[in-house]
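WARN retry 2 of 3 for item q-0093 after timeout on previous attempt; input resubmitted unchanged.
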Amino acid sequence: MLGISLTQGRYARTARFLAGAGLFLCVLSAGPAFAQAPGTVPPLEPAPSGLTGGVEGMLTFGKFSEDYFLSVGVGTTLAFSDFMVGIQAPLKIRVIDNKPDGQPWYREEDWDEPSDWTRILRFFQYGQPHDLFYLRLGELVSSTIGHGTIVGRYYNTLELDHYHTGLSTKLNLEQGGAEVLTNDILVWNLVAARGYVRPFLLAMEDPNPILGKLAVGTTFAADFLAPTRVSTETTPEEKQPTDVAWFTGIDLELEAVRTPSYALTPYTDLNFFATRGTGWHVGVLNELSALKSTFELRLEYRLLSSRYAPSYFNTLYDIERVAFLPLPQFDGAADNPAVPKQFYFQEAEGLKLRNGFYGELFANVLGLVGLGGIYEDYQGADNASVTMRADLPEIAGIKLAAYYTRRNFDGFSELFSLDDALLVAEGRYRFFGPMFAYGIYSITWQETTDSDGFKTYESDDSFQAGVGASFSF
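OK item q-0093 returned
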């Protein structure tokens, strides 16, 4: 599965972390056959009916921040009919304590908040997003509301030092439905909800088959604790203020074609970012199933006002809400830090009306190979974004996977600049029975403070290598 998500650059390195801590489910990926990977493509080996799952244990050595740790973990994934549950027990033991030294023997940041203890239940899931009823509790991976134009491919796993237990649920009835998402059931700062109806099915007993497939929806999404700034002169002793970043939207879609092998769904969304900006999206979703393979192709045109951001709550939002981009009016200034996303769209000067295109393609080939990507580009400089993901099958005992995201770049020459991108690369080699060697390289994001005392994030290369054993049952 190769995911391509496009929006703001400078947080490409966030992509690396995302893959390291969230996309690859940290050190412990329990039950590799059923682990939920990023992207909307389902797991490559979906759990069959009946009780099944896997158990995996790993021992790795690697670097986090300035220190080196021995990581021990055991995890399991169980599936029974429509139910799936993932459980993990990770522990990082500090073996090399570099400056600043004097830290505890374990990585204290993993267990210093009440929410951190909920990480033991990695996820609980019932059904799939397109089923009559779907619910997922715990880690949210590539969660989307509606067509993804407000909340698109959101992950709640970016923050290495803060664990979030999220909730995503959907109800899909013939005459309408609803979907709700929150990033953390203990905090509830990000909340999104959408309801939709098929009006002709409600109003008529036997409507025209085409009219009966027309759906009308409305969406509300908000971060009720979005960080902002009053001034770059604020002292470290002053608490960083928050505000509400909220969106509303209306949408239409028509399932024009639906056969066992092909579906065609044109749609349009009109969204409002508080009283600041407006975005209009027009797209078409194609779904093809053939020869035990599935393909999803989405093409979308976007017309965006100056203070509107498409898919505002996106893959990297948990980082962008704190550290988005520097204000353009201060380009070249010696001290021009990245500011919170809410503050950026409130204070940035020189923003203009723009239009552009968004495209994504995901393929699951024969249930063995996952490839996918998203690319978007708009008028003006630094308005392109890309995300890619690949999962390759095990060949001669070797299995490889990679995830890459880069945001806010200008031109193909900057497409693979690792200094401004998120990259995760993972490899396994099964050398004897259930035993395998393991290695992963990623960029992680850790909380820090800038020169004005405001919370921000710094990226840091990290790696892990070790051995493990995996059992399926």
